[in-house]
Design a protein that fits this description.
The complex is a heterodimer. By secondary structure, chain A is an all-alpha fold. Chain A has helices spanning 2-6, 9-30, 38-43, 48-83, 95-108, 117-145, 150-174, 177-186, 196-215, 217-223, 227-232, 237-259, 265-277, 281-305, 314-336. By secondary structure, chain B is an alpha/beta fold. The chains are: A mainly alpha, B alpha/beta.
Chain lengths: 339, 280
C-alpha cells in the first residue's frame, strides 16, 4: 500500500482502475442466469455443460463488453478533446445514427432475402460498420470545408444526425411489424450473441483504432492551449484531426456492428473521470478506456441478471444510468457556473 | 359422442409413449407454438416459455425466458432443455445454431401467418414431440374449420375496418392490404373498407370517414386500451361512419385471432357469426 502511495498520481490512478477492472471482471464472470464463474471453477463444481457455456457464451461476452466499453469511452474522450467541447460524443457526431440507418435499410429492404440466416446476421454487422464508416467519412469531408473550425464539424454531425433520424423514421413507417421490432431492438444494443470468431475479427479492426486514439493524447493536451498556441508549438492540427476521426471510425464502427447502439458511455465516462483526475488527456484517455470497460462489464452483468432468465437490452441500461447522471452534472455545473 | 370416445381411447393408448417423453425438458418459444403444444396435450413437458406464450392460462406459471425477438442464449441454456421448439419468428437469427452448438436439440417451427401455416406448425411440433398420432384429431378439426370458411358467402355490402390498437395519442392503426387481419376479414366474408394502404398503418380521421366502414373489428386489448365501447365511437372520424351509426362492433381475442395458432380458424368463424347477428 505504501508503495502504491509512493507512485506518482497518474500511474497510481491507472493502477487503481486496473484493479477495479479486475474486480469487475470477476464479478461479471459470476453474474448471469447460470451460476458459473471462478468460484465454481475453483471449487470444481462446474459440469462440462457449464464449462462449455462459460467458454462459448459468457467469456466472449465479457471480452466484448470490455472491447466495446473501452472503445466508446476512449472515442468520446478523444472527440471531446479534439472539439474542445465537453458534449462531443460519437453519437452526437452522427456515427451511431448513420450506422443505424444502414441497418434499417438492411432490415427493411429484402437485400438479404437470398442469404441464409447466418449470413443475414453477419451481413447486418458488416453493414452497421460500413454505415458508421461512411458517416465518419462524410463528416470529415464536410468538416474540411470548415477549414479546421471545430464548430463546423459539430454542426455537420448535427445535420447528419437529423437527416439519418428522418430517414430512419421513414423506414419505420414503411416497415412491417416484425421489421419494426427488429429495428427498435437493434437500437437498444446488446452483447449476447457474438461468437468468438466475430469477436476476433472485430478486435483486429478495433485495436489499431484504440492505439491510434491513445497515441494522440499528448497532442490533444497541446490543442487545449488554443489554436495559436498549438500552431506555435508545431502541432499539425489537420493530421491530429485525421487521426482522431480515423480512430473513432474504427472503434465506433466495430462497436456498433457487434453490440448495436450503446448510449451515453462515450459522454459519461470521460466526464466522470475528468472530475476525479483533471482535464489532462495523457491520463484521461487511458483512464477512460479502462473506465468504459468497467462500466459496460457491470452494466451488462446487470442486464443479464435483473430480469433473469430474460435479458434487458444493455444500451437501455447505460442510457438509464447515463441520462440522469448527465442531468445532475449539468445542474451542478450551472450552480458552479463553469459549463 | 362417439368421436369423443374415440379420442379418449386414442389418448389413453398414447399414454405409453408419453411416459417415455415425460422426462424430456422442452422449451417452447412462440405463442402459436406453445398453444399447439398444449393442444396436443403435451403442456406438462414444458419447463419454460417466451413472453409471447400467454395461452392457455396455466402457461403463465412457467418461467419466461424473454421476448421472442430478443431472446437470451444464457437464459434458455440455464434450463438445460433437451428440446427447444423454436418459431422461425424468433430472433436473434443465430439462436438456433448457437443452441445446437451447445448440444441442444432444436426444432424449427415455420412462421407462416395464414391458415395453411397453422397446419404446417402443428405438423412440425407434433413431429418434434413424437406426437404425430395425437395430432391427427387436431388436424382433422382444423381441416373441417377451414372447409367451413371456404363455404362462406361473401357479404355484399359489409366493409369491415380492423383497428389494431390505439395507445392513447395519435392516429389509430388500421389493417391495410396484405396484413394478417385483412386476410382474416376476407375469410370471414367481409371486405376491407381500407383500401390503398399496405400493412398496419396509422390512419387520419378523414381517411376513416372516406372508407365508410360498416363494421368495426377490435381486439380485446384494443378495446381496453381505448377505454370501452362508448369511447370507441368517439374516435375522430369514426363517428361519421355507418359502423358508428349502427353501433356495429365485433371484439375478437388478440391471441386467437391474430396468433395463427390452433384457435385462429374458429375465431374467424366466430367473427362471421357475430357479424351476421349484428346485421339482423
Amino acid at each position: 500500500m505504501n508503495r502504491l502511495l509512493a507512485l506518482k498520481p497518474a500511474p497510481r490512478a491507472l493502477l487503481l482502475l486496473f484493479l477495479v477492472l479486475f474486480i469487475a471482471v470477476l464479478l461479471a464472470s459470476q453474474a448471469g442466469t447460470l451460476a458459473l464463474g471462478p468460484w465454481q471453477f475453483i471449487t470444481g463444481s462446474m459440469s462440462s455443460y457449464d464449462w462449455q457455456i462459460w467458454t462459448a457464451v459468457r467469456l466472449p461476452r465479457l471480452l466484448l463488453a470490455m472491447l466495446v466499453g473501452s472503445g466508446l469511452a476512449l472515442a468520446g474522450a478523444a472527440m471531446q478533446g479534439l472539439f474542445r467541447n465537453p458534449l462531443a460524443d460519437p453519437g452526437l457526431l452522427g456515427v451511431s445514427s448513420g450506422a443505424s440507418l444502414a441497418v434499417g435499410l438492411w432490415i427493411v429492404f429484402p437485400l438479404a432475402a437470398f442469404l441464409p440466416d447466418q449470413w443475414t446476421w453477419q451481413g447486418q454487422m458488416l453493414i452497421a460498420c460500413v454505415g458508421g464508416w461512411l458517416t465518419c467519412w462524410l463528416i470529415f469531408r464536410l468538416g474540411q470545408n470548415g477549414h479546421g473550425n471545430m464548430l463546423w464539424l459539430l454542426l455537420a454531425g448535427l445535420a447528419i444526425n437529423t437527416l439519418a433520424g428522418a430517414f430512419n423514421g421513414l423506414l419505420s413507417y414503411v416497415a412491417d411489424d416484425q421489421q419494426l421490432r427488429q429495428m427498435s431492438l437493434w437500437g437498444m444494443g446488446g452483447l449476447g450473441f457474438v461468437r468468438g470468431s466475430e469477436l476476433a475479427v472485430g478486435a483486429l479492426v478495433m485495436l489499431p483504432g484504440l492505439f491510434l486514439l491513445l497515441s494522440v493524447r499528448k497532442q490533444l493536451d497541446v490543442l487545449q492551449l488554443g489554436d495559436l498556441a498549438a500552431v506555435d508549438s508545431g502541432l499539425d492540427a489537420k493530421k491530429l484531426r485525421q487521426k482522431v476521426v480515423l480512430g473513432t471510425a474504427l472503434t465506433v464502427g466495430v462497436s456498433v456492428a457487434l453490440a448495436g447502439i450503446i448510449g451515453f458511455l462515450g459522454l459519461m465516462i470521460p466526464h466522470m473521470l475528468r472530475m476525479i483526475l483533471g482535464p489532462g488527456h495523457r491520463l484521461l484517455l487511458p483512464a477512460s478506456a479502462l473506465g468504459g470497460a468497467i462500466l459496460l462489464l457491470l452494466a451488462d452483468a446487470l442486464a443479464r441478471t435483473l430480469a433473469a432468465p430474460a435479458e434487458i437490452p444493455v444500451g437501455l441500461l447505460t442510457s438509464l444510468i447515463g441520462g440522469p447522471y448527465f442531468l445532475w452534472m449539468l445542474a451542478r455545473g450551472r450552480n458552479r457556473g463553469d459549463v | 359422442m362417439t368421436q369423443l370416445f374415440a379420442r379418449l381411447v386414442a389418448g389413453l393408448a398414447l399414454l405409453l409413449p408419453l411416459t417415455s417423453l415425460a422426462d424430456q425438458r422442452v422449451i417452447s418459444l412462440g405463442g402459436d407454438v406453445t398453444e399447439i403444444v398444449y393442444a396436443l396435450g403435451a403442456g406438462d413437458l414444458l419447463v419454460a416459455r417466451d413472453t409471447t406464450s400467454m395461452f392457455p392460462e396455466s402457461v403463465n406459471d412457467l418461467p419466461d425466458v424473454g421476448y421472442l425477438r430478443q431472446l437470451s442464449l444464457e437464459g434458455i441454456l440455464s434450463f438445460k432443455p433437451d428440446l427447444v421448439l423454436l418459431s422461425d419468428a424468433a430472433r436473434p437469427a443465430p439462436l438456433a445454431e448457437r443452441l445446437e452448438a451447445a448440444g441442444i436439440k432444436v426444432a424449427r417451427i415455420p412462421y407462416q401467418q395464414d391458415l395453411d401455416g397453422v397446419d404446417l406448425k402443428v405438423k412440425a411440433v407434433s413431429k418434434a414431440l413424437n406426437l404425430e398420432k395425437e395430432a391427427k384429431p387436431l388436424l382433422a378439426d382444423l381441416a373441417k374449420q377451414r372447409e367451413q370458411l371456404t363455404k362462406l358467402i361473401a357479404f355484399k355490402q359489409l366493409n369491415g375496418v380492423f383497428i389494431l390498437s390505439h395507445a392513447g395519442m395519435g392516429a389509430p392503426m388500421v389493417a391495410g392490404q396484405g396484413s394478417s387481419a385483412d386476410s382474416l376479414m376476407q375469410l370471414a366474408g367481409l371486405n376491407n373498407a381500407i383500401q390503398g394502404i399496405t400493412g398496419y398503418k396509422p390512419i387520419s380521421a378523414e381517411g376513416l370517414i372516406a372508407a365508410q366502414p360498416t363494421t368495426l373489428i377490435l381486439t380485446e386489448a384494443g378495446l381496453t386500451a381505448l377505454g370501452g365501447e362508448a369511447k370507441v365511437w368517439q374516435l375522430p372520424g369514426l363517428q361519421q361512419t355507418p359502423a358508428a351509426e349502427h353501433k356495429r362492433l365485433v371484439v375478437v381475442n388478440d391471441l386467437a385471432f391474430l396468433g395463427f395458432g390452433p384457435r385462429t380458424a374458429q375465431s374467424v368463424l366466430d367473427l362471421r357469426t357475430a357479424v351476421e347477428q349484428l346485421r339482423q
